[in-house]
Amino acid sequence: MDSQVTGEARVGEAQVASALTEAVAASFAGAADPRTREVLEAVVRHAHALVRELRPTQQEWQQAVEYLTAVGQACDDTRQEFVLLSDVLGISSLVEAVNGDPDGTAGTVLGPFHMTDSPVRALGDSIDQVGTGTPCVVTGRVTGPGGTPVPGASVDVWQCDEHGFYDVQQPDLQPPGNGRGLFTADEQGRFRFRTVVPSHYPIPTDGPVGRLLRASHRHSFRPAHVHLIAAAPGFRTLTTHLFVADSPYLDSDAVFAVKPGLVVDFAEVDDPEQAARHGVSAPFRQADFDVRLVPDERAKVEQ
Amino acid sequence: MDSQVTGEARVGEAQVASALTEAVAASFAGAADPRTREVLEAVVRHAHALVRELRPTQQEWQQAVEYLTAVGQACDDTRQEFVLLSDVLGISSLVEAVNGDPDGTAGTVLGPFHMTDSPVRALGDSIDQVGTGTPCVVTGRVTGPGGTPVPGASVDVWQCDEHGFYDVQQPDLQPPGNGRGLFTADEQGRFRFRTVVPSHYPIPTDGPVGRLLRASHRHSFRPAHVHLIAAAPGFRTLTTHLFVADSPYLDSDAVFAVKPGLVVDFAEVDDPEQAARHGVSAPFRQADFDVRLVPDERAKVEQ
C-alpha cells in the first residue's frame, strides 16, 4: 500500500515537474534574439533534467550554490576558475570538438596562459631567454586544402619552461615573453623556432576546482605541450597544442585536450652538424608539426 | 558531395564527442563518496548533452564563462545572485518539487530574505510595527496525517510591507524584525497573528540576473505572499508561502513558486465586532491557511 502511494506520488510529482519545466522554458519565448531564446530554453531543459535525475536534497542544492559562488569569487585579473572548471569537466574540449573541422588540424583548448601578446620574432629565433632547459627545434608548415602552402600565415606559440612554469607565473625568474613568440610563415608556409622542451605541469589546485579534483581522487597534471594559434586571411583561425610524445599524463590530461593527431615526436638528435645549422648545441630535440587550415568560406556555407 | 562530406564529418565528430563524455564521466569513478561520483557523472553527461545540442561557438562559450563569473562576483553577505539565478530558471522550485510530499502541504522556495531570526511573538501579536498598511489577520492550524493537530508546532513567518520591501532592505524606514514573527501553535495546533497585506514586488534586477530577464523580455515581479516555515519534532519541516489570491503576477511569478494549494483568499471583513475581537480596525482582511505536515519516519522509509 505504501509503495503504491509512493508510486502514484512520483507520477504526480513528475507531471508537476514537467509542467514546471515547460512553463520556465516558455518564459523565454519573448527574447528579442532567437539564439538567446534557443540557448536559455535548452539550459532550462537540461538543468531541469539533471535535477529530476539526481533529486538533490535542499542541502545538496545549497552546496551547489555555494560551490558555484566560490568558483566565481576565485576569479580575478590573472585567474579564471570557471574556465578551469569547464576544462576539468571536459566542456572546453567538447566546445572545441563541435567547432572543429575534420578536414583541418584538430583544435584544442586555449588554456588560461595566453594572457599577454607574444613578442614578434623572426623565423629561427629562440623563444627561450633563460637557457637552462633541453634545447629543442620546432619546424612545420601551414597549409590549406590539398596541402597547398599558406604563405605569410601567423604562428603564435607559447609554452611553459622545463620546470612547468609560464613566464607570467614567475615574473621574478623568467623575463616577460619567455616561452612566447609570434612568427610569420615564409613563402612556402614554413615556420621554425628554437625553444626548450616544455614540462608536464599541474593546473592550479588551490581553489574550488582543486577541491573537486581531490574529492574525486583525480590528479591535476597536463602532459607537456606547446600552444599554437595559426591564422591567415581567408582561413578559420586554429587554436591547438603540440603534445610531447614521451610526456607523462598523455592518457590522462586533467583537461581532456589530447587528440591523437596532436601528439608529436620530439626526437633526440645528436649530430653537431645539424645542431650548428639550427644554432643549438648537440644533443637537441626536434619536432615537426604541420598545420592544415580550413577556408573560412566553407564554414560560412555550412551554417 | 559537400553535404555528404559534412554528414560524415558530423558522424565522426559525434563519435569523438561521445567518447570524450564517457572519458570525463569515467574520470570521476574514483570519488571516495558514491553520491559525489553520481552527482559529478550526471553533471558531466547533462552539460555535455547541452553543448552537443547547442553547438556553442567559442565566443558563446566565453560569454557563458563571463556570465557565470559575474553572477559569482555579484554575491556578498546580503546578496546571493546564484540563488536568484536558480530561482528565475525554475530550478529552486523544481528542487522543492522533487523533495515535496503529496500528502502534505506543498512547499515552495525559501527566498533570499530569511536572513535574520524572526522575533519570538505570542499568538495574536502583530508582526507589523509600522501601522500604515491594510490591517490583516492570518489564522491557521498545523496538522499531521488525518488532520490531527500538531500542538506546539513552531510557525515562523516573514513578509514584505505594503510597498513591497522587507525590513532588511529598508533599515532606515522599518525597525528590525518588522514583518517577522516566530509563533508557537496552541494545544489544537492553531496559530494566529496580525499583520498588513503584503505587496507584490520585483526581485533585484541590478545584477546579472536582471540582465537575463531584460534580454528575454521577462518581468521581475513576484505576487504578494507571506513566507512560512512550520516545524515540529517528528515531522518534516515545511517551507512554503501563502499567496494573496487577488495579487497581480500570480500566473507569472518571476521565480515560479506559485502552487494552487498555496493561493489563499485574503477576504475583506467590514465588521467592527470581529475587528475588535482581533484587535484591528475595520475594514480588515482575513486569511486562513491550514498546514499539513508529513511525519519524518515516512521520509526515512521512502529513502
Keywords:
homodimer; 303 residues; alpha/beta; Protocatechuate 3,4-Dioxygenase, subunit A; 2 domains; five-stranded mixed beta sheet; 12 strands; 33% helix; globular
Protein model, in words:
The structure is a homodimer of 303-residue chains. The first copy, chain A, is α/β, with parallel strands linked by helices. Chain A folds into two domains: 2-86, no CATH class; 103-302, Sandwich (Protocatechuate 3,4-Dioxygenase, subunit A). Chain A has helices at residues 2-26, 34-54, 58-73, 81-88, 91-99, 208-215, 272-278, 296-302; strands spanning 135-143, 154-159, 180-184, 190-196, 201-202, 221-222, 225-231, 238-244, 263-264, 267-269, 284-288, 291-292. In chain A, strands 1, 4, 10, 11 and 12 form a five-stranded mixed beta sheet that branches. A five-stranded mixed beta sheet of chain A has the order 3-2-7-8-9, with no helix packed on it. Chain A has a two-stranded antiparallel sheet with strand order 5-6. In chain A, a hairpin with a 6-residue loop joins strand 7 (225-231) and strand 8. In chain A, helix 1 (2-26) runs antiparallel to helix 2 (34-54). The model of chain A is unreliable at 1-5 (pLDDT under 50). Chains A and B meet through helix 1, helix 2, helix 3, helix 4 and helix 5 of A and helix 1, helix 2, helix 3, helix 4 and helix 5 of B.
